[in-house]
Amino acid sequence: MGSDQRYFTYNAGDDFFKYDSLKCYWSQTALPSANNALSAAQISAKKIAPFKSIQQLFPFIEAVTPLQQYALDVVLSEQPQLFMLEDVTGAGKTEAALTLVHRLLDLGTADGVYIALPTMATANGMYARLGEAYRKMYHTAEKPSLVLAHGASQFSKQYQQSIASFIPDVVISPQVKDQDYQDNEESASAYCSAWVADSRKKALLADVGVGTLDQALLAILPAKHQSLRLLGLSRKVLVIDEVHAYDSYMQGLLETLLEAQARQGGSVILLSATLPFSMRTGLANAFMAGRGQVLPVLTNATDNYPLATQIPAVQHCETKVTTRKEVARKVFVEHLASEQKVLDLIQMKVAQGKSVCWVRNTVNSAKKSFDDVSLLEGIKPDKLTLFHSRFAMIDRQRIENHTLKIFGKNSTECERCGQVLLATQVVEQSLDLDFDILITDLAPIDLVLQRAGRLHRHVRDNKGNRLSEGEADQRGQPTLYLFSPEASENAGSDWLTSLLPSIEYVYPDLGQLWLSAKLLLVKPSFNMPQDARRLIEGVYGLDVKSEIPDGLSDNSFEARLLKRQERGMAHLNALDLQKGYSMTSAENNSGWDDDVNIPTRLAETTYAVALARVVDGRLQPYAQDESQPRATCWALSCVNLREGDWEKVEKSIPKQWQQQIEQLKEQEPSLKWLQILPLVEGLLACYDENKGWNSSGVAL
Questions:
Q1: Are 641 and 582 in contact (CB under 8 A)?
Q2: What tens digit of pLDDT does each residue of 350-381 get?
Q3: Distance of CA 288 to the CA centre of its chain
Q4: How far lies 447's CA from each of 118, 454, 516, 535, in Å?
Q5: CB proximity list for 238: less than 8 A, separation 6 or greater
Q6: pTM above threshold 0.70
Q7: Which residues of the chain register pLDDT less than 70?
Q8: Which secondary structure element, helix H or strand E, spans residue 336, and what is its range?
């Protein structure tokens, strides 16, 4: 901000010596200019509205859930504190968390909040939900900034429309008129200062932030603007949703983040439907390490769920709560041991007018099943959708919006009837989807339970129309169909190969998969929430390794060893908070070299590839949107490809297009660091707007 010449002009020679003293310059020019810059940026603390009730934020809530009642009743401390809220999907965890946030703001222990989610899609969904509530936490005269913080926030029209584009002229008075709001627009829901919104490095300085966890993790990695991000998290409540959804590497980084947040006096709220005890204690230990205190003993009883944990506690560290009766239910499990049985089931349920989802573990499996289902008699092409991560951004946005409309909370009988969705894990987290029939590939138990949360998520009649809360669902008992081999005691390393090829690349611990299959298939049903803790600890507990068949034990041991290595890498990459900022040989916090890029996630190398259409002999963005700038259209045309896929397709680009690609990169600064793929003859089969990327279509 000090470099902004609109507020801090260069004073030299006679311009400077007109002041009687440095003190005079300081009081007459420096401080007024600083106040003006701060006012224009709108990053000063805002006045908080007194907390009165949960309906203050969420007027649609008629009766609070038990978890929300806990958030209303728990005695808060003025010191930094950690909350862990564990409850089943649909129990109102988000509303409970924001109730705690508002109470902490009103108590004066924080000035804002950052809500971290696992993916950009889930962050977009949370942003939309929060946009209608967040300003009610602040005084009516305030205009707190709400920022969407992730790598594709520029593609959210809702967010872009909230950004104030007015930049005031340099004035001495710190009172700046906000030109984006007319007198009758003071209650507008979403608003963000242009200064905060112009780069991701400033995102955490907003009063309220919603984004991916990656943006927060950059505060504890040796990355550019690390200290600015850490500053942005200070005096904020850090809310992390779906905390179970991260791999060992990200969990290791998360522990360092919790320690840093506690060190600088910030509170944390962790949300999860399924949190293993080992992860729970690890995260709590990290927070208490930041406070310089010892963690109290946590319990691991199988009936200790749903559970609210407060550390350090004013009264009770752990409080068992009930769940609302609408989401307490018995889920039946049926075993499907062949793809043909799955296809027969889909065909039968579509004929009955049901909405169906099959969650597959890999993109290739989802695409193959999409083709297989499209050949079934009675399946209408306009009622079959494929949803995975390997679409160009513009198509992924379209498909996501379509999926939320057809299977979302407010979908109707007409919209849902006979619809089939073939999807990957993109539907697993935080998207409010509701299916009549849910089929899932075998996956680790916590992910299966997450997927089951999309089954009969809202109360409906037998045709699929929504009913009022409190009424009984008329669709019959919810049944989860598990596509899996039997959990035989003599299972070997080829146990899953024929049925679920390539699954070990997604979920490498076959022992955990075997335990998950055994727990789900040994009984015809499970009860939520009563069985949740038993199921989770039955796979992730410290004493379950002895139950894994000998034929899978070597694989499981190697997978556990790999997870330890990932955690070790996380602690090696993260900043050593004890050392502080030092480059001396004795106290080196490594990684600050400009050429080092330490990731927030471990993943195989990928390339951002911009797809290009040929229009009148020239390459144009695949995404055609006249309402967007050309640079945004190119960004919306991008698809992320694995290194091997790109290397294969790059060789197939006709030579006559190479020169135009180079010229295009010189003319379009936004394309400088992207790969460009012209969709010309021989390469058209690479991409389809309804099926996404298909490397097998490359003509070599």
A1: no
A2: 999 999 999 999 999 999 999 999 999 999 99
A3: 25
A4: 14, 11, 10, 11
A5: 113, 114, 116, 216, 257, 261, 266, 267, 268, 269
A6: yes
A7: 12-16, 152, 154-155, 157, 164-189, 430, 582-591, 593-596, 695-700
A8: strand 329-336
